[in-house]
Write a structure and sequence with these properties.
Elements (H helix, E strand, L loop, with lengths): L1 E10 L2 E11 L4 E5 L6 H9 L6 E6 L2 E2 L5 H6 L2 E4 L11 H8 L12 H4 L18 H13 L5 E5 L7 H17 L3 E5 L3 H7 L2 E6 L2 E7 L5 H7 L3
Parallel strand pairs: 3-8, 3-9, 6-7, 7-8
Antiparallel strand pairs: 1-2, 1-4, 4-5, 9-10
Length: 231
């Protein structure tokens, strides 16, 4: 499905990613771990096309998207929930979700049930502005907006950051539900080891802009955690 090959990217003269390679298979939940500042968000932005790659390649379902604009990647079936949620504060909840339909490959006259069925509280908030919601409510809105296009790959950048525990549990349940459905793969950036261990199939650890370790859950030992993740 998704293949990142020897990707190099950065900001200005600064190189953040140094030859990163990873894969996400259909229906899989792949977790991207690492200390702060190692390039996790930079990688997500590069995969989505928000940040241009300097070297390397991003391919999706066999198509080379390395130079493609974010809109084209979204149209190919990649959804994105960025760090910080980035909801449109002046638009209503309903309008925010409608924006997600712009990336849909299917014609739709309204919000598809799949976008909101996992967040039953959202319809009662349709007339509220996005900027008036709590952090947890905004995260649910950003999730629903991404799901509106029925993506086959969903990029989640720290969806639990700054969220109350009850909403974190809801997000865990949503990811497990998506995983069980088997229609959408997920690439997840998250700091909580307990969280990723509860949902992940395969794991990559970034260190100094490169993949320092990769493996399945059983291989994610205390020794690996101490070496690459403990601050």
């Amino acid at each position: 499905m998704l293949a990142v090959q020897q990707l190099e990217a950065g900001y200005g003269e600064s190189i953040i990613l140094r030859g990163v390679s990873l894969k996400v298979k259909p229906g899989q939940v792949v977790c991207l771990l690492g200390r702060n500042g190692v390039g996790k968000t930079t990688l997500m932005k590069s995969i989505m096309g928000v940040l241009k790659a300097r070297r390397g390649a991003v391919t999706y379902d066999g198509a080379d998207l390395t130079k493609a604009a974010p809109a084209r990647r979204a149209k190919r079936g990649i959804g994105y929930v960025p760090q910080g949620r980035e909801v449109f504060s002046q638009l209503t909840v309903y309008e925010n979700i409608l924006v997600g339909l712009e990336a849909s490959r299917e014609k739709s006259s309204g919000i598809p049930p799949e976008a909101i069925e996992k967040f039953p509280v959202l319809p009662s908030m349709y007339e509220r502005r996005g900027g008036d919601l709590s952090g947890g409510q905004q995260q649910q809105l950003a999730f629903a907006r991404a799901l509106a296009s029925k993506p086959e790959l969903l990029l989640l950048d720290e969806p639990c950051e700054g969220i109350q525990p009850s909403i974190v549990d809801d997000i865990r349940d949503v990811i497990r539900s998506i995983k069980q459905d088997g229609k959408t793969a997920i690439l997840l950036v998250e700091q909580s080891l307990d969280f990723v261990r509860s949902v992940g199939d395969y794991f990559y650890i970034l260190d100094k802009g490169a993949v320092a370790w990769e493996g399945e859950l059983d291989w994610l030992s205390d020794e690996v955690v101490r070496k690459y993740l403990t601050v």
